[in-house]
Each structure stands twice: as structure tokens, then as C-alpha cells.
Amino acid sequence: MKLIEFENTSALDRALSENVADLLVAEIASSGSASLVVSGGRTPVGFFHLLSQQCLDWRHVSITLADERWVNADHNDSNEKLVRENLLINEARQAQFIGLKNLAKTAAQGESEAERSLLSVGRFTVVILGMGDDGHTASLFPGAATLALGLDRDSGRTCISVTPTAAAHERMSLTLPRLLDSEQIILHLSGAGKQSVLEQARAGGDVETLPVRAIVNQRQTPLSIYWAR
Length: 229
Hints:
Layout: E1 2-6, H1 9-31, E2 34-38, H2 45-52, E3 61-65, E4 67-69, H3 79-86, E5 96-98, H4 107-117, E6 124-129, H5 147-151, E7 159-162, E8 171-174, H6 176-180, E9 182-190, H7 193-202, H8 213-216, E10 223-228
Parallel strand pairs: 1-10, 2-3, 2-6, 3-5, 6-9, 9-10
Antiparallel strand pairs: 4-8, 7-8
Helix pairs in contact: 1-2
């Protein structure tokens, strides 16, 4: 694990956008295509804008989400809407986007289709994750009924439906084994409030209490933590 600290979010966003672009370029040169998993929320918006301006062959990049709220793509809480308006612009408008929300009435009913939509994407090139104050990452929330399934490395599952106990909307989330099936994971954090949660996670302990521990303390996939004070 590599922890990289920045004095402000502007410096972080700039460095992160350049690093991710370099990783995508290298993967395209090596295998002909690359893939990127991103997360929602306010934290990545500045990063999205800078990444969208990076000059690379976006036609060969697939972008999907670590998780999605089960709302229509025009809903203000939709991560797909956030990505389309802030990342799939400028140079990155040519990328292929694979959404997790489908026409099923509930996320549970949409699991199979969501998994099928990702069949064409092999090992991810880069996964960008956030972290909530409760220690969740993607939509792997503490206390959720399906959390154990989402954290099970031997489940064979790509996506699971999640109903958070203290957050709005049913969700679709990539599972831990699918997130770890990547060349690089980057945990993108901002603000002093995240520091104590990160320290608790790094100290080890029950992953169901702080699900982000499953990312921070694993040894399968290289992990970098980008944190702005």
C-alpha cells in the first residue's frame, strides 16, 4: 500500500488524473484496450474534469461504476448522471460507458443483467474508490443484509444488490472479488474527517464493521491512497 498526501484537492486531482491517464495509455499500448471503474459523490468531480481533458485514445477505454443507486439515469442522485456530465466530456466523450442501472424494478431483480453487462470487460485496469465516514466503499455498507456476500472472495459474483441501513436508495455494487480483479486500486479521499476512519481501517479488525478494511488490508492488488488534507 502506498499513501500519497497532498496539501489540497487541486494538487491531488491533477496528480491523480495524470497517473490514471498514464495507466490507461500503458494498458492500451499493451493489450489494445483499457478499463476504468469510478465512484460517485462530490470528491471525484474535480478529478473527473481534469481526466476528461487527458489526451489518450478514449475509444479504447471502457468506463463503469463501482456502485450505483437504483434510480433513473436522469435522477440527481444517479452516479451515471454524474459521470456523464463530468467525465464523459471533452476528450473522454469517446469512451464507452457501461452503466449498472437497468430496467429491472429493483436492484435485486437487476443483478443478473448487471453482471452480464460487464462480461465483456476483463481484468480492470484501474479502480477508483471512495470511502464513507461509516467505512463503506463502493456500496458495501456495514449492516447491510448482503454485505457478507459482497465481501466473499469465493462467491463468483460480480454485482450484488444492497439496501443500506442508513442511506437513501437501493444500490447495485461491485463485489470485493470483482473490485480486486484489477491492475491497480486507488482510494481517493479528501478532508481531515477521513483520517480517523482510514487509521482505524489500516489497524485491521472486523471487515463487516468497516468494509473498507477489505480493500486497505488486502495483498492481492496494488493499492495507492490519494489523500488531500
